[in-house]
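Handout, section B. The chain below has 164 residues.
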Amino acid sequence: LHMLIDYAKFFLAPKFTNGRWPAYLFTVDQFCHYLAIIGIYLAISPQQTQLILNPNWLILALFFLIITKPINIIFKLYFERYQVELEDTSSISGAGAIVGNLERLIIGIFLILGQYAAITLVFTAKSIAHYDMISKNQGFAEYYLIGSLFSMISVLVTYALLIF
């Protein structure tokens, strides 16, 4: 199903996008992928499910998959216009996406373990690491806050929909 969806996307997207991949097509693509996953999940009979196909494990795996790369792509598609050009370009390319993934994974683990107060440690560590840039560049501070809040909201919403 994944290959069929991507195959259709490969041939249909250029007809609708003029070579550009807009946010709404990404959203439709992701919806189709998740619909396929849910369909397969519902097709598996609970009586025939082994440990590896245990619905609880599948839901946890889906939770951790959703809060990583798809959330990065959604953030980039919808919030890239708020990113500011920095004078200091010593940052490693792609590091922000990895930090965002790790941030959301840690938040997800803390939610599952019921350690809600520990989530503040993630934001404290990020704020300490970026303190100098936050205090000197208002645009970066706003973009940083948008990213941090979007990360938190995306994990909470995904957690509420799949696990809670």
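Note. The chain is about 75% helix and 0% strand. Compare this with the example in section A.
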